[in-house]
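Hi,

Apologies if this is the wrong queue. I'm a grad student, and the batch job for Aldose 1-epimerase from Hordeum vulgare subsp. vulgare produced an output file that my downstream script rejects. I'm not sure whether the problem is my script or the file. Here is the sequence I used:
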Amino acid sequence: MKTMTLALVLCLAVAVSLVGVEARKHPGKETLGYYELRRGEFSMVVTNWGATILSVRLPDKNGRIDDVVLGYKNIGAYVNDTTYFGALVGRVANRIAGGRFTIKDHAYHTYTNDGNNTLHGGHRGFNQVFWSVRERVTGAFPYITFYYRSGDGEEGFPGALDVLVTYKIDGDYSYSVTMYARPVDKPTPVNLAQHTYWNLRGHGRGTVLDHSVQIFASAVTPVGGDLIPTGAVTPVAGTPFDFRAPAAAGARIAEVEGGYDINYVLDGADADGQGVRKVAVVSEATSGRVMELWGDQPGVQFYTGNFLKGEQGKGGAVYEKHGGLCLETQDFPDAVHNPKFPTEIYRKGQVYKHYMLYKFSLAAK
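Support response: The file is valid. Your script probably expects a header line. Output copied below for reference.
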């Protein structure tokens, strides 16, 4: 037993490959780092700035290795960006109407950065802070865990919150994202999301409108003009939001004002969204790449990069409208104002958990 314990301690002390460290310091004296997780020809690079995924690289049907996520060429572009490329967003992902909510008759006002609404945690959400590296492990299944303490009153949210996110390569061409959060003192809303933009043909290689998309959801939470849910839950049958069977992302996008940017109510989810199940499948014919997303949350935001316009990306790429798509598992948007939605209020002693699994493969010939 002592030998096994020592071996585990030594294993946990092994660092993932450090791709590079910039000599830039946060006031909290955090060092900016880039970290690679690799298993064979499948790899991903993450950074502790915003707990952000910078790249995911894997082969296509001809063996060509491509980076299939959108991103910037250097970390400076991630500072104060509004695309949220690859970021871990919170304390509350998506929108809070009016930048205010009430818990136990106490009103809280959050920073409004989307008109009159709060988006992805406010002006300085979790994507705009340094996270510390809690664990770094190599081996057959490498992983890295980032930690951040969000202080009481940060962006207007009540109470301190401890947050952990682990990125792990779980097998050949698969990786997981595991998020935990624990209120330290006061009740607070929590809804984290991973905001990676995907283009399975390779980032910067045109739009994703020809990508085949399947979402295992029979309903959506419709929104008004400001993208705030109305509180209703409506069936997708007979609408352009129906992706229960695989369809091109662009097949009916002209019927959706502005493009897709809506929460899907996932099939098989109970009130708390518990239980890991298949959320979506995306495939792209030219590369032959297929991506499956599994998760344990009640909803998933499907977004087709509607606001991209001349975005200067990595490797000289320029991202235009619909240059990538997002599938962000989550609690329902603006749940603090909709008692019929699954609650996102967590109290001291409760633990928020959010799990995602990405599986990549090649389509059968």
